[in-house]
Amino acid sequence: MMRTLRSKLFIAALAFTACGIAPAADVVGAGSTFVYPVMAKWSADYRAATQTKINYQAIGSGGGIAQIKAKTVDFGASDKPLDTAELAAANLVQFPLVIGGVVPVVNVAGITSGGIRFDGAVLADIFLGKIKRWNDPAIVALNAGLTLPDQAITVVHRSDGSGTTFNFTNYLSKVNATWRSGVGEGITVRWPVGIGGKGNEGVAAYVKQIKGGIGYVELTYALHSKMSYALMQNAAGEFVSPNEESFQAAADSADWDHAQDFNLVITNAPGANAWPIAATVFVMMAKQPKNAENAKAALAYFDWVFANGAKQASALHYVSLPAKVQEQAKAHWTQSLKY
Amino acid sequence: MQDALIAAAERRAIRDARHDLRFRGLVATAGGFVLLALGGAALSMLWGGWETFSTFGLDFVTSSNWDAIDQQFGAWVPIYGTLVTAAIAMIIAVPASFGIALFLTEVAPTWLRTPVGTAIELLAGIPSIIYGMWGLFVFVPMLAEHVYPWIDANLGQWPLVGSLFAGPPLGIGTLTAGLVLAIMVVPFISSVMRDVFLTVPTRLKESAYALGSTRWEVVWDVVLPYTRSAVIGGVFLGLGRALGETMAVTFVLGNAHELSTSLLMPGNSIAATIANEFAEADTDLYRSSLIALGFLLFVVTFVVLAIAKLMLRQLAKREGR
Lengths: 339, 321
Known about the structure:
The complex is a heterodimer of chains A (339) and B (321).
Chain A: H1 2-21, E1 27-31, H2 36-50, E2 54-57, H3 61-69, E3 75-78, H4 84-90, E4 92-107, E5 117-118, H5 120-128, H6 137-142, E6 154-158, H7 163-175, H8 177-182, E7 195-197, H9 199-209, E8 213-218, H10 219-224, E9 228-229, E10 231-233, E11 239-240, H11 244-253, E12 278-286, H12 292-308, H13 310-315, E13 319-320, H14 323-336
Parallel strand pairs in A: 1-2, 1-3, 5-10, 6-7, 6-8
Antiparallel strand pairs in A: 3-12, 4-8, 4-9, 4-12, 4-13, 10-11
Chain B: H1 2-48, H2 50-56, H3 59-62, E1 66-67, E2 72-73, H4 76-107, H5 110-124, H6 128-153, H7 174-197, H8 202-210, H9 215-244, H10 247-253, H11 270-277, H12 284-318
Antiparallel strand pairs in B: 1-2
Helix pairs in contact in B: 1-12, 2-12, 4-7, 4-9, 4-11, 5-7, 6-7, 6-10, 7-9, 7-10, 8-9, 9-12, 11-12
């Protein structure tokens, strides 16, 4: 009796495991860590709605690009767009997915979130090591009425390669000629000064530890770890706060119409209310995938994300693409991806 | 009858010889596997780093310019950081471990020896990431607020060595990494030392005591010479760990590719650089440079161990053994 019960249980367990494995292969994606929180949320909701499992590995933007070029994944995600030549060489199609933002965070006694203002030139000079103390006249000029301590500035940057760094250095290159010629832009650069933390959480931890520290992280990390972020002066001359509205304004005012293959970095966007260090996450897919079924399923997922993903994005401080850009992206993939 | 016995004995001898041969082959394979693994690891890293060595040549080791955008890679900063943090760790850990082992074997009351000995073994089992987090969240703020300002104000003014100790008290930097490493390797070195100190025959020690030696003289003139090679072995076990430690160092070293004379300033180490940058190394030359760094760590460790062996041989020769 006991034995039959046990063997029945065993068979039931086997059948159960088999069920878990049996459905069509998961859609696999890899890349940007920046997009991981919202991607995980979307995947969970999408699975609940459609039974299709999206398996996304946050291995970093560079890794995502390498994997989709090797066609070991169904889609890659990167915070840095590829240009037309590189896309053509690897036979890839690229479209934007979602918008987020990078914010400068500071650790200075008495300064709360939004309590300090920077413009691009001053921010670049701080990261160049030209501005060394918090009471430097250049910072004081932007912050009339704020008492700034005579304290050394300690710059904190990323020690690992990162799309966050790419967008941040891209912005500094656009607003400061010395930065452009001396340091440049990239997922990792030769930093003139400062210490490196691994990942957004590493930078956040260092800035919180070091009095007089300044770093840059995604907005979500700044809010989660309750750090003081700065207001930035944008291209229109306005001081704006990092939030969904200003990220949205950056996405809206960016010139998507003239960007071939969506190769556009939306930092320093012209809109009056635009956050100057907004960042786009791009998806790359192969024109001739190894598994066309999965590629098709991935497109269906992105279609669902465009239609239903705004709520989850906004809960995690991301912003969905403007409707016009979503239409352009869909039109682009329908035209170039024939599975 | 007797013939049968002899035949049986012969058969047995033949069987034994055969088994002996098989056993020999088996253990020789096991031993050879070590060489194979070592050689394979070294060669594959040399192979992977070949592009870098052929591009930069000796500059890869001597240059301190590490620039992923311009594809210029020089490894001097991480090499220097690795050597300096390990040196700081050894300067602190070796005397401390010696003291611990001495206390546990010669001085401590018997009831205290087991709990303290067990505590040391438990310390050795703590994963390095725990040391890293503790270092960053507890040790770094403490040093930054209470210790480094004092060091900067006092030692920083000394002639010659002053520049080693001058700088803003960030709390994160080469000296902090060395201190955390010291705490990490103390359990390794001290447990080896304690074990070998216990192997010294009581007769030897008692004779020395009988001749009127103090405790220190017994330890210095009897225990230490008797166990010297094992003690140095333990020290190099600790050094090996300090050279290759990754996570704990990454947390507190600052990961900056900047060469700085001050020990209070951030630096970089070979293992930390590899761990930080491998995932996003997007060009062949970049990846090759990181693998080449791994090969250099291999070489550095090998050279350090070779020097240790030479030192031991030198010592033995001087004693006329």
